[in-house]
Amino acid sequence: MMEIIVIGTGNLGFNLCKAIENQYVIKDSAFAKAKCKNVKNTLKLIGYYNTSATRLASLQAPLLDSITSLPKADLIIIATPDDYITSVSNSLNTDAIVAHTSGSVDLQAVSNRNNYGVFYIPQSFSKSREMNFEELPVCLEYNNDIAQKGLETLGNCLSSKVTYLDSEQRRRLHIAAVYMNNFVNHCYTKADEILSDANIDASLLYPLMNETLAKAQELSPYEAQTGPARRNDVQTITKHLEALKTNDRAMYDAITNSIKNTYGN
């Protein structure tokens, strides 16, 4: 059995703890039968640590009270903010495999350990929303066969999509994820503000949101692009800029120009 400790219980760390504990019940799916026939005896979350010493009632595993005297484990996952990864790794007194979960931090951030790696999931997590890890891609990087075996065991028990990316590839994936998730969600926020100011129900645009994603996946984002910037509709663009609040015009203008440049308008 692989015994695991998770350090950091923010959105990702909390969901990872939940995912590991949920594996005690084998899912009735082809994935579970093919890759994790005996998951109950494969993974065990033996504890978690957070700086606020907050016990999480939804977790069965115990809250650990000291990061410098953790119990013996096979794998320690560092799910902290990026700036703390190296210092946390340096403070550990362990022979366990140590892996961080960042998309933008190099593998070498935990290279003070003998066996180390990265366990990165390109997904947006929230504590209030449970995720089906089986559908989530898991991107691994590791320094040796021992770390590879441990991380692949965890990855294959949680997900049906496990792949290897080096640090540079993972950084590029993370940048793309910021565009695809964080920037797009911010655009949703700005759109919601515009609708709210005009007393318009935001759900009127939900079908458009769904169709935008469907077209981008079915065609390609490049082929799916429509709108005034794509067709260089100067009159409409000018009217939009005039209608927007002053602080919002720069963002609209920047995205419009980016689209126009992409299509040679």
Describe the structure.
InterPro entries: 6-PGluconate_DH-like_C_sf (IPR008927), DUF2520 (IPR018931), NAD(P)-bd_dom_sf (IPR036291), TM1727-like_C_sf (IPR037108). Pfam families: DUF2520. Residues 137-258 form the DUF2520 domain. The chain has 265 residues and is an alpha/beta fold. It has two domains: 2-165, 3-Layer(aba) Sandwich (Rossmann fold); 170-262, N-(1-d-carboxylethyl)-l-norvaline Dehydrogenase, domain 2 (Orthogonal Bundle), CATH 1.10.1040. It has helices at residues 11-22, 30-35, 85-91, 145-158, 167-197, 206-218, 221-224, 234-243, 246-262, and strands spanning 2-7, 43-49, 75-78, 97-100, 116-120, 137-142, 161-164. It is elongated and about 65 Å long. The N and C termini lie far apart (59 Å). The mean pLDDT is 93.
Strand line-up in the sheet with most strands: 2-1-3-4-5-6-7
Oligomer: single chain
Q: CATH superfamily assignment of the largest domain?
A: NAD(P)-binding Rossmann-like Domain
The helix/strand series, from N terminus to C terminus, equals EHHEEHEEEHEHHHHH
- Roughly how much helix do the residues carry, as a percent range? 40-55%
Question: What is the CATH-assigned architecture of the largest domain?
Answer: 3-Layer(aba) Sandwich
At CATH level 3, the topology of the largest domain is: Rossmann fold
Overall geometry: elongated
Structural class: alpha/beta
Biggest sheet: strands, sense, closure?
7 strands, mixed
Mind telling me the C-alpha Rg? 22 Å
Average residue pLDDT: 93
- The number of distinct β-strands equals 7
The domain count comes to 2
